[in-house]
Amino acid sequence: MTDSSQEHHYTENVQEHLKQVEALLHKHALLEEVIHRQQLPRDDRHALLDTLAHKQHIAELQRKLDGMHPADIACILEALPIEQRLLVWELVKSENDGEILIEVSDAVRESLIEAMSREELREATEQLDTDEIADLAPDLPQNVIRDVFKSLPIGEREQLRTAMSYEEDSVGALMDFNMVHVREDVTLEVVSRYLRRFEELPDHTDQVFVVDRNEKFKGVLPINLVVVNEPEDIVGDLMLTDIIQLHPDDKADMAAQAFERYDLVSAPVVDEDGKLFGRVTVNVVLDFIREESDTELLNFAGLLEEEDIFASVWKSAQNRWTWLALNLCTAFFASRVIGAFEGTIAKFVALAALMPIVAGIAGNSANQTTTIIIRALALGQISHENARRLFFKELAISGLNGLVWGGVAGLFAYFLYHNVPLGIVMTGAMVLNLMVAATVGLGIPLVMQKLGRDPAIGSSVMITAITDSGGFFIFLGLATIFLL
Predict the structure, then answer these.
(1) Among 5, 30, 48, 418, which lies 20 to 30 A Cα-Cα from 291?
(2) What's domain 313-483's superfamily in CATH?
(3) Over the stretch 272-288, which tens digit does the pLDDT of each residue have?
(4) Cβ(215)–Cβ(209) below 8 Å
(5) pLDDT one-digit tens code per residue, 150-160
(6) Structural domain boundaries in the chain
């Protein structure tokens, strides 16, 4: 089975689980509605709610949830309205609470945490490894964090404090401390005996990290070398030394690129003294890439944060206000640009019908440029040296597209209105506005990065504003010069 077919299969499974859960919730809601409609005393209604049929629906739903993977439950919780979400959350086995809280989106996690008591949060958090607790900590009440700190052994407490000290976009925030390491001067037989002492190896253990007597990192020993070589062979003779080493302060996106480029499953994290500090695994990197992709998509649309699709109207509206307000201001500015050419439009009414074409094509072209530039920035492909060359290339592309598609638009305008100067104005406006689009499409992400901001933040909103206003000004300005 290929990767794409496996992904499709897993998606179908989750969707099937969701349908079954929704069906059980629907039966549960129907029964409650029927009972509440009965003209019965409150005590009798409570008695009916405790009937076998009602309990059967809840028990069936609980059995269904008990057999599901926590990640699948997380997906289902995200797809349910808040009332149903909280009902399902109450039925989830408590030993899965911590893992589910890690898996769900930030917005949904907030609604689940609000429904939990201090004791429930503490118990759920204590189920997690220290690196996972560090991921969850920003969303937890301070009193819960204090309780968890007190309950951890001293060693894990220090690990948690260390993990929480790193920025979200650093390798230190991705690493975990659950790893296997051996000395370079031992035999493979010693390594084998040591590995057999584990009830199970840490997830994604494809290699054993090798250190010297002072815990300084020396190399890695792939698990397959332990199996295929003689027991008396020395680890130092077989270990690999030419490998990728990460540092806690490295950027997480650079680590993600290394994992993708070299097909890594795990990688060591080494401190400034060369000592083995932790490791990063591919599952954490994939989660980071997915979160970055989601954040970039939201930022591109001008959304401030991830949004629970079932959040209240008020809360969702607030999340969208900032860039809508900016967009309103830019729309007023564009209207004033048009207003400045009222005389021209009054004499050539056809201009009003053709204006949106110039602005729309340029906006689409600018978004294409911006998407390519943001991707190139994420991959580290743009530098100070090649930025100028890239700028002139985008201008050339826009000029060519402007001549080709501006010519088409000019012919379209001529055949509609039988006016040669109007067709020429249309072509010239398309060429110039596409070049403006290339400038802003390249410039906005670069400026945002220079300011230390996400290049995708509000790019679409700003591009639309500039290409609309610029397009109207260029088109109507040329019309005023050549048609009056």
Answers:
(1) 5
(2) SLC41 divalent cation transporters, integral membrane domain (1.10.357.20)
(3) 999 999 999 999 999 89
(4) no
(5) 898 988 899 88
(6) 3-169, 181-282, 313-483
Cα angle at 274 between 273 and 280, to 5 degrees? 120
Mean pLDDT of the chain, nearest integer = 86
d(CA 286, CA 328) in angstroms, rounded, equals 37
3-state secondary structure of 1: coil
Q: Which of 273, 241, 258 has the alpha carbon at shortest distance from 174?
A: 258
- Given this structure, which CATH class describes domain 3-169? mainly alpha
- How far apart are the C-alpha atoms of 274 and 218, rounded to whole Å? 9
pLDDT at 3: 44
Give the up-direction half-sphere exposure of residue 278: CA atoms within 13 A in the CB hemisphere: 19
pLDDT tens readout for residues 209-223: 999 999 999 999 999
Measure the N-to-C terminal CA separation of the chain; round to a whole number of Å. Answer: 68
The C-alpha atoms of residue 143 and residue 446 are separated, in whole angstroms, by 42
Distance between CA atoms of residues 383 and 391, nearest Å? 12
How confident is residue 188, by pLDDT bands cut at 50, 70 and 90?
Answer: very high
Side chain identity at 377, as an amino acid letter?
L
Between the alpha carbon of residue 54 and those of residues 17, 44, 251, the distances in Å are 21, 14, 53
User: What single letter denotes the amino acid at residue 225?
Assistant: L
Rounded CA-CA distance 463/451 in Å is: 18
Predicted confidence at residue 285, as pLDDT, reads: 94
| CA atoms in the 13 A half-sphere facing the CB of 190 | 12
Alpha helices in 80-187 (DSSP H): 82-91, 97-103, 106-114, 118-126, 130-136, 142-151, 154-164, 171-174
Write down the CATH number for the domain with range 181-282: 3.10.580.10
| Lateral strand order in the sheet of 207-211 | 181-183, 207-211, 217-222
- Which residues are 221's β-sheet partners? 208
pLDDT digits 0-9 by tens, 7-34: 444 455 888 888 888 888 887 777 666 6
Tell the burial category of 474 from Cβ atoms under 10 Å away from its Cβ (0-12, 13-18, 19+). buried
* Separation of CA 420 from chain center: 50
Alpha-carbon distance values, 24 to 65, 92, 157, 410 (Å):
11, 15, 42, 60
